[in-house]
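Handoff note, outgoing to incoming analyst
You'll be picking up this chain. Sequence as last confirmed:
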Amino acid sequence: MVFFNNIISLIFGLSVLILQIQFGELAPSIKNAVLESSCINAVNPGYISSGCPVSPDGYNFGWHFVLPDISNAFVSINCQFSKAGTVTKMIAEPCAMHAYCYTPTADTLLGCTANVSGTDTKFTLSDVCMPPNPCLDNNGDCDINAACSQDQFTGVRLCTCKTGFTNTGTTSNVICTELYSNLNNDKFCLTT
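Most recent structure output, in case you need it:
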């Protein structure tokens, strides 16, 4: 009879444990975590990181946050930026100890808090992601007599005619033509 009572107690104890797990009583606690103070007022663009996932909104400027302990996970995030305001949308890839937020233009991070599953109460800004430089490939498809640059706020390619040339095209289709061409190979002087 004692053996039977012990088995009943064991079954009852396991049932209670299963119910506690199902209803979240033993689930990891959710804590409020804050961004390390050294990361506040960080500016993007910083340096280009190739490891950022694609923004669901098509934004080009990413902010990569990391928790110190791999067993912890971001549940939600709330970041304040000088231009974009409050951003709460995040991507947790490649694993939940990473969180990515995106802004539509270059911005300044004013502060950030997160709800975290686990024991971490602080997290850091690991790096920033910005659009790849379009000028690195074939001079950004700018005219041969143009210099290519990347707008620091939008990431867009800009073509500017070199000295001695002028744009005879449009803003989006720059065609650089020589200012003083000598079609007859005649000598000429420019006086001022």
